[in-house]
Amino acid sequence: MLRKPQLRLVVTFHTTAEALKTEQVARQLGLEGRLIPVPQALSAGCGLAWSGPPETETDLKHALREAEVIPEQLVTLTI
User: Fold this and answer.
1) Nearest alpha carbon to residue 32 among 51, 19, 49
2) Whole-number CA gyration radius for the chain
3) What is the CATH class of 7-78?
Protein backbone atom coordinates (compact mmCIF):
# COMPACT_ATOMS: atom_id res chain seq x y z
CA MET A 1 0.00 0.00 0.00
CA LEU A 2 1.41 3.38 -1.00
CA ARG A 3 1.76 6.08 1.61
CA LYS A 4 -0.05 9.34 0.93
CA PRO A 5 2.43 12.22 0.39
CA GLN A 6 2.51 14.62 3.31
CA LEU A 7 4.28 17.77 4.44
CA ARG A 8 7.43 16.88 6.41
CA LEU A 9 10.37 18.68 7.96
CA VAL A 10 13.51 17.27 6.34
CA VAL A 11 16.94 17.89 7.87
CA THR A 12 20.08 17.04 5.90
CA PHE A 13 23.63 16.73 7.20
CA HIS A 14 27.24 16.97 6.15
CA THR A 15 28.13 13.69 7.89
CA THR A 16 26.49 10.44 8.90
CA ALA A 17 27.62 11.05 12.50
CA GLU A 18 25.51 14.24 12.60
CA ALA A 19 22.49 12.35 11.24
CA LEU A 20 22.85 9.62 13.87
CA LYS A 21 23.29 12.20 16.65
CA THR A 22 20.11 13.95 15.48
CA GLU A 23 18.17 10.71 15.67
CA GLN A 24 19.46 10.17 19.21
CA VAL A 25 18.58 13.73 20.30
CA ALA A 26 15.10 13.54 18.77
CA ARG A 27 14.38 10.22 20.52
CA GLN A 28 15.55 11.62 23.87
CA LEU A 29 13.10 14.50 23.45
CA GLY A 30 10.30 12.19 22.34
CA LEU A 31 10.02 13.95 18.95
CA GLU A 32 8.26 12.03 16.21
CA GLY A 33 10.51 11.36 13.23
CA ARG A 34 13.11 9.05 11.77
CA LEU A 35 16.13 8.83 9.49
CA ILE A 36 15.37 8.45 5.80
CA PRO A 37 17.38 8.48 2.57
CA VAL A 38 17.85 12.05 1.33
CA PRO A 39 14.89 12.87 -0.97
CA GLN A 40 15.76 13.32 -4.65
CA ALA A 41 14.69 16.97 -4.49
CA LEU A 42 17.63 17.69 -2.13
CA SER A 43 21.33 17.06 -2.05
CA ALA A 44 23.42 16.51 1.04
CA GLY A 45 26.92 15.65 2.20
CA CYS A 46 25.70 12.31 3.52
CA GLY A 47 22.92 10.09 2.23
CA LEU A 48 20.76 10.31 5.35
CA ALA A 49 18.19 12.90 6.39
CA TRP A 50 15.93 13.18 9.42
CA SER A 51 12.22 13.54 8.66
CA GLY A 52 9.55 14.61 11.13
CA PRO A 53 6.39 16.68 11.39
CA PRO A 54 6.92 20.36 10.48
CA GLU A 55 5.73 21.44 13.94
CA THR A 56 8.85 19.85 15.50
CA GLU A 57 11.17 22.35 13.79
CA THR A 58 11.58 24.81 16.68
CA ASP A 59 12.18 22.11 19.30
CA LEU A 60 14.56 20.22 17.03
CA LYS A 61 16.58 23.33 16.13
CA HIS A 62 17.00 24.17 19.82
CA ALA A 63 17.99 20.60 20.70
CA LEU A 64 20.51 20.40 17.85
CA ARG A 65 22.07 23.70 18.91
CA GLU A 66 22.43 22.33 22.47
CA ALA A 67 23.96 19.09 21.10
CA GLU A 68 26.31 21.08 18.85
CA VAL A 69 24.96 19.45 15.68
CA ILE A 70 25.00 21.75 12.66
CA PRO A 71 22.47 20.65 10.04
CA GLU A 72 23.23 21.22 6.37
CA GLN A 73 19.61 22.23 5.57
CA LEU A 74 16.21 22.31 7.22
CA VAL A 75 13.40 22.33 4.68
CA THR A 76 9.72 21.53 4.59
CA LEU A 77 8.80 19.23 1.70
CA THR A 78 5.88 17.14 0.59
CA ILE A 79 7.23 13.59 0.52
Assistant:
1) 51
2) 12
3) alpha beta
